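Structure first, sequence second, as always.
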């Protein structure tokens, strides 16, 4: 049985139109995901006892005459954050006065952590400042000043592209001591984060670490925070425990190979080393 040539033309046209409709639908869906607003929460409440100062917040120590938190605030502006929420604690007036003076009228709203009850507890304090916000929340540390825009942009894109509930940045350290370890299943997929103080001997051998940089859907984040408990050796609310309440299939990871950009400053010596690395261009 033969068909007129016009029939094949019509069938081909119909197929192309269907493919085009599906493509437009996919683009529209991706656009909605990418258009999600971003708020940035910056953990900035620590005193930093090893910084040899009892009257200065750790994030106010300087690299090239700029407080560390200023680098993180600048990064938040670069990604067009709708709202920036520094969570302040010890000697908070120094952080507040500096940022209000340098960025008057900007979209910065402070949250206060009166007691230092862990990183999870710190982020809980930001919920009120983000009341009514719908979108993604990027969590940064005020003592990690050299994080690159390109890395954060990749983290945001991967999170959005895969429609994740949460995505975390990881890296591999030759000396992973002191950091939470990334535990993966036999297939290489993210399973959990184990804090150094709670890790067993096998887990302590893991080199892939958690530098505490995350992005999560705001509702998922604060719902998970309501479920965590201080049931650990430190009796603190670990932010990493939120991943117990977020489906593994909706959790992603992005790996950076640059140790320096995700290194937190914990001592005066480390601060000087970081400044030297910046000035040498390494």
């Amino acid at each position: 049985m033969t068909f007129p040539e016009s029939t094949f033309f019509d069938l081909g046209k119909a197929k192309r139109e269907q493919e085009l409709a599906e493509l437009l639908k996919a683009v529209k869906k991706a656009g909605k995901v990418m258009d999600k607003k971003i708020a940035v929460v910056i953990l900035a409440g620590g005193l930093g006892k090893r910084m040899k100062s009892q009257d200065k917040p750790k994030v106010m120590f300087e690299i090239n005459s700029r407080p560390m938190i200023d680098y993180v605030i600048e990064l938040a502006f670069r990604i067009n954050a709708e709202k920036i929420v520094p969570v302040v604690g010890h000697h908070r007036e120094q952080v507040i006065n500096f940022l209000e003076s340098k960025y008057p009228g900007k979209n910065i709203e402070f949250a206060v952590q009166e007691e230092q009850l862990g990183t999870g507890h710190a982020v809980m304090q930001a919920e009120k400042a983000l009341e009514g916000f719908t979108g993604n929340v990027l969590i940064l540390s005020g003592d990690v000043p050299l994080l690159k825009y390109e890395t954060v942009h990749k983290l945001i894109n991967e999170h959005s592209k895969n429609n994740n509930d949460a995505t975390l940045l990881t890296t591999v350290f030759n000396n992973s001591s002191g950091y939470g370890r990334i535990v993966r299943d036999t297939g290489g997929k993210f399973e959990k984060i184990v804090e150094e103080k709670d890790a067993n001997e096998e887990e302590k051998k893991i080199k892939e670490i958690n530098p505490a940089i995350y992005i999560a859907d705001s509702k998922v984040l604060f719902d998970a925070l309501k479920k965590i408990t201080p049931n650990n050796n430190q009796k603190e609310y670990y932010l990493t425990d939120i991943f117990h309440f977020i489906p593994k299939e909706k959790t992603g990871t992005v790996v950076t190979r640059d140790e320096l950009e995700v290194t937190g400053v914990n001592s005066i010596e480390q601060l000087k080393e970081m400044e030297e690395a910046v000035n040498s261009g390494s």
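Margin note: The domain at 36-168+212-247 is CATH 3.90.550.10 (Spore Coat Polysaccharide Biosynthesis Protein SpsA; Chain A).
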